[in-house]
Design brief:
heterodimer; A: mainly beta; 7-stranded mixed β-sheet; 4-stranded antiparallel β-sheet; 11 strands; B: mainly beta; 6-stranded mixed β-sheet; about 0% helix; globular
Chain lengths: ~110, ~110
């Protein structure tokens, strides 16, 4: 069955370190998205991509970057982790032009100390 | 400025009764709406959606109602079951746009046995 996976599921890192969160989907979807979920804020869009070599900034993109070298993967990089980036991160994908429904991964809980 | 608002952070209902979750939006360009359900430590899962050309969509125990003039939608769950206890997110998108979703902050539903 097609799925979307995220790794690691839990990560503790120190302030100032670079961190990369992985997202891999086997739906063959062109659209991929990264969100963060924080108490009192719901889900906020960080970056998104409509296909290979395409990346776009979302609502809360400062301090984050993404790259899309193939259809299956959209890694999220925190260039220099800050305590304000402690959050739960979700990756999602969707099939453009057929449905606005996005399929979400299980999430990565990141703690920056 | 919050474009999708879920003004009730929490809702508690008795098993077998109706649960009504509300969502308001401010952007008149939104014309597709979705509800997601999220259990702890899991990613959000798609529940039901509605296009702006409809005012009601039903799927089993779940019905979504859309009032475009009031920019309001609601999710009805009848009858409510303890397994429905979760956080429910309302999301909206503008067709012909970027296929991004804008999420509300969520409502935590608790169904008591």
């Amino acid at each position: 069955d097609a799925e979307i996976t995220q790794s690691p599921r839990h990560k503790i890192t120190e302030t100032g370190r670079q961190v990369t969160l992985a997202c891999h989907q086997t739906w063959n979807h062109n659209n991929m998205f990264w969100y963060r979920q924080d108490l009192g804020h719901g889900l906020r869009l960080i970056h998104y991509s409509y296909g290979v070599q395409d990346t776009n900034k979302g609502e809360v993109s400062d301090g984050y970057s993404v790259s899309r070298s193939n259809t299956e993967d959209l890694p999220l990089t925190l260039e220099s982790a800050a305590s304000s980036q402690t959050s739960v991160y979700f990756c999602a994908s969707s099939d453009p032009g057929t449905s606005y429904e996005q399929y979400f991964g299980p999430g990565t809980r990141l703690t920056v100390t | 400025d919050q474009q999708v608002k879920q003004n009730s952070p929490s809702l508690s209902v008795q098993e077998g009764r109706i649960s009504i979750l509300n969502c308001d939006y401010t952007n008149s360009m939104f014309d597709y709406f979705l509800w997601y359900k999220k259990y702890p430590a899991e990613g959000p899962t798609f529940l039901i959606s509605i296009s702006s050309i409809k005012d009601k969509n039903e799927d089993g125990r779940f019905t979504v109602f859309l009032n475009k003039s009031a920019k309001h939608l609601s999710l009805h769950i009848v009858p409510s079951q303890p397994g429905d206890s979760a956080v429910y997110f309302c999301a909206a998108s503008a067709q012909g746009g970027s296929e991004k979703l804008v999420f509300g902050k969520g409502t935590k539903l608790t169904v008591n046995p």
